[in-house]
Amino acid sequence: MTNLSNVSASVGLIPHQIISTFLSVSMKDVFDMVIVAICIYLVLIFIKQTKSTFILIATVVLFSINFISQEFDLALTRRIFEPLLTFFIAIFIIVFQPEIRKFFKWISAGRKTTFAKALSLPEENAETIVRSVFEMAKKRVGAIIVLPGQYPLDDLIEGGFPLDGKISMPLILSIFDSSSPGHDGAVLIEGSRIKMFGLHLPLAREFSEYSRVGTRHRATAGITEKTDALAIAVSEERGEVSISQGGKLTKVNTPEELATVIQKFMDTESDASDSTKSLSHYFLVKNSYTKIAAILLSIIFWFFLIHAAGIVKSTYTIPVEFKYLKDDKTISADSKSTIKVTVTGNNKDIAGLKPEDIHAVIDASNFKIGENDLEINQSNIKLPSYIELDSFTPKTLEISTKAIVN
């Protein structure tokens, strides 16, 4: 009974602890969490748009290992990972440069959906593509046709020849004819125009999944792995038609099925292009679940890194630095030049303070030969912005200077 009573009492305290925690949140804490939530939201949008889930996994693993090493005082792990975290941003930029460039290109596109289906593929052109694809499948002519989505393809495609030709069955068949210089490459279609042909596409990274297919199908899957493009492939050996979205290849058996896929893709891209017409609308109105995740993560970080860590006081004896002392004077060795300061801050912040983080600076430009009575004020004590000065002693110093004899 006693144990049950203790458990009940403990459970009853939980709501009160939660309430007291929320009551302890100041406007400064709220503002702090809002800023962190915005940063997390931007990172999540970056991962969503570039489809770089590896970045999220690597970040979580890196910070989790660092957190564990701090909590359990794992000296070796901490020594290795603390410097790594210091250079994390630089490493992040170098390793994920293509994804970062693509993300900013997506943002800079704004209302210009030049690589979007906002250009729209007219229905008659879609029918022409379908008829051309199955005609080539019937004749065992290999081909790749790419319909771009919202993401830019410039950094992924190479080579090719500009065309800007009107979509027609004779033109498509002639491009992929074996006598054409660009028949082994891909065709890029934007709106009602064939923009380029003979393009080289990146190969899919998941080689094991496409071990039974040729280079053409690997390239078809590769261009859609990290973009929202739709790619259509015709097999030269088997005379089969396949489509790829999200890096996945799917066989298409009939013209009607391919027409449905293209129409569905166009409808999806039309909806997506509406969201890119205004970046403010996309960031502020869309992505509700992403916003909720960012807010929850911000609250969790605040609770474990700030609230749970607690606020502590610590006292340090710091040296006084004399600046702008004229060249003909020097400070006497018997002058007391240290100050004892008490600071307040987060437990982790206080524990991480280094001796050089706190120091006192005195303007000695007006020092005279002999005794100088100095009044110390808060502006003379330099602290990191996240640490607050609680008190300091002494309030005055007697500094003796003497002339330098040449």
What is the CATH topology of the largest domain? YojJ-like (1
Number of domains: 3
Count of separate DSSP helical elements:
13
- CA-based shape: elongated
Name the beta content range: 15-25%
Order of helices and strands: HHHHHHHEEHEEHEEEHHHEEEHEEEEE
User: Would you identify the CATH H-level superfamily of the largest domain?
Assistant: DNA integrity scanning protein, DisA, N-terminal domain
Widest sheet: strand ordering: 2-4-3-1-5-6-7
CATH arch. level architecture of the largest domain: 3-Layer(aba) Sandwich
Helix content: 40-55%
* Largest sheet: number of strands, sense, barrel closure: 7 strands, mixed
> Which CATH first-tier class of the largest domain would you pick?
Alpha Beta
Question: What's the number of extended β-strand segments?
Answer: 15
Structural class given helices, strands, pairing? Answer: alpha+beta
